[in-house]
Amino acid sequence: MEIFSSYNLIMGAAAIVVISFWFNTISKKTNIPSVLMLIVLGISLQFGLNYFIGREIDFEKNLRGTLEIIGTIGLVMIVLEAALELELKKEKLIPILKSLAIALIGLIGSAWLAALILYQFIDGMTMQSAWLYATPLSILSSAIIIPSVNGLREDKKEFHIYESTFSDIMGIMMFYFLTGGLDSETDSGALGFAGNIALTIIIAIVASYALLLIFQKIKSQAKQFLLIAVLLLLYAIGKKMHLSSLIIILVFGLVIANVKIFFPGKTAIFLEREKMHQIYHELHIITLETAFVVRTFFFVIFGITIALSSLLSITVTMVSVLIIMSIYVVRFLLLRVFLGKNIFPQVFVAPRGLITILLFYAIPSKAEVAGFESGILLFVIIASSLVMTAAMIHDKKKMGTLLDEIDEELLARKEAEDAIHDQNSGALNVQSSQEITANQT
Is residue 364 included in any domain, yes or no? Predict the structure, then answer.
């Protein structure tokens, strides 16, 4: 078709990137997640394409494979981007452990409640299938959270980066642990799962050290995408070997971002400091840019594939609302216990997104339930993003009001000090005049 000609596709792709950059600017000013705007853009494109073509197209069927590939690359880039920003320091050990505990307990607690809801209201849903469907719905979206929390206080920003990254990794591990349990021949049980994680960590550490030592010796300027290609290769091979591949990406990012810790004392002689700094700086920029582009196309394509008619079902609305309520109840209790009273807006920063969609597509055919409607997935993603948006906007207004109050207080204090200074100056002038008059007399 003429509408899908090569030049039209190039123009469309370029326009989407430009619009996405504009969305990022709007997001920084309003705290509305750019991802939400990208999904709306995708939905608009769906209606526009159907109108110009003259018939409805099954975009979900035609673009599902593309969505999975882009989503996987995006997942790797987003986790690497997050890992490159994490500093491992002694004073940050407690915040990291708290984030890990909140992410793990929140994942299991949310999945358990969501599984009970799905089992109760979806026809043909077994408890095993319910857990499998509930797990993607219980994973925080680092793809949405990390770009959205830049305006928060530094400690709150770090908490969200740690928590969402841990939630991504543990959620994926939990999902594939559950899928492994579907087949008695491949199910290795909890012990085998723990061994899988241990093996993945060992491979990740060895691979990270090897990559750093090798790539600092490469003199070519065009080596950053080679490094990313090697990481994607390791990720894909790890998935084929049923390893928790995302740990490899996380460990590599942590090693390159914290080389002083991983190369202590005399081992530092193996490092070329200037080249390591250059590799880190260039990789950070390329990862940031690549994650931006991949995230852009993933959520636009997801918007194109959305079937809005699925939202009209009463069952979809009821189940989705119950799941969303369970998410925030679990989150409130956890944050109240671990973080105390100062938990706003953190309690509402719990969007679902990229990984939720990817894992939903990865559910094995033998575990698929015909009664489950994809509208539940869409409803939870959009609603959780809107809740986060409202909380972030409210927090921004609150911070603005607080800053205005501080400015007013400082201004009032300065005026009071100026008034006192003027009074003292006046009194001194009067006293000086009196002394002069007395001397003249």
Answer: yes
Is residue 181 helix, strand or coil?
A: coil
The three-point CA angle 335-337-338 to 5° equals: 65
Domain membership of residue 201 (yes or no) is: yes
pLDDT class of 120 with cuts at 50, 70, 90:
very high
Cα separation values, 75 from 10, 235, 287, 291, Å? 24, 11, 11, 8
Convert the pLDDT of each residue in 192-248 to its tens digit: 777 878 888 899 999 999 988 888 888 777 778 888 889 899 988 888 887 778 888
Q: How confident is the model over 158-182, as a mean pLDDT?
A: 84
* Nearest alpha carbon to residue 46 among 300, 367, 233: 300
- By CB atoms closer than 10 A (0-12, 13-18, 19+), residue 39 is buried
Nearest C-alpha neighbor of 137 from the set 382, 386, 387: 382
Please count the structural domains in the chain: 1
Task: Enter the tokens of residue 19.
Answer: 């619009």
Stretch (H or E) spanning 227:
helix 224-240
Tokens of 130: 């319910």
Q: 139: left (phi > 0), else alpha (psi -120 to 50), else beta?
A: beta
Whichever domain contains 158, its CATH number is 1.20.1530.20
Residue 131 has pLDDT above 90, yes or no: yes
Does the pLDDT value for residue 408 go beyond 60?
no
Residue showing tokens 């619009």: 19
- E-strand ranges in 35-154 read none
Is 377 contained in some domain?
yes
Rounded distance between C-alpha atoms, residue 264 and residue 50, angstroms: 60
N-terminal to C-terminal alpha carbon distance within the chain: 108
The mean pLDDT value for 396-416 works out to 56
Report residue 441 as tokens: 């007399």
